Amino acid sequence: MRTVDFSSIIVIYNFLIGVLVMLSSEKLAAYAGHVHKAYSERIVRLTYVSTFAFGACVTVLSGSIYILFHLLKIGS
User: Per-domain residue ranges for the chain?
Assistant: First the structure.
């Protein structure tokens, strides 16, 4: 019977969530702009940049962790 590596599954899910946040950052920024109409332009710009940056950081971190531990597993 083969054991399941739950840590790699969690890292892959985090990678996918990061990619989805990056892709939906423009839509999330538009929704944030509709909440407060007075500062809509500023809120949209800041929300777009911050959600895209957060998604990119999660994606890069998860991808590098997965690749690093996969290489370490191959070496042993």
Answer: 21-75
- Give yes or no for a contact between 57 and 19, defined as CB atoms under 8 angstroms apart: no
User: Tens digit of pLDDT per residue, the chain (76 long)?
Assistant: 777 778 888 999 999 999 999 999 999 999 999 998 888 999 999 999 999 999 999 999 999 999 988 888 776 5
Helix axes 40-75, 25-35, angle to 10 degrees: 150
CA-atom Rg of the chain in angstroms: 17
Residues 6+ apart with CB under 8 A from 11: 62, 65, 66, 69
Q: Give the number of C-alpha atoms closer than 13 A to the C-alpha of residue 23, restricted to the C-beta side.
A: 6
For the entire predicted model, the pTM comes to 0.83
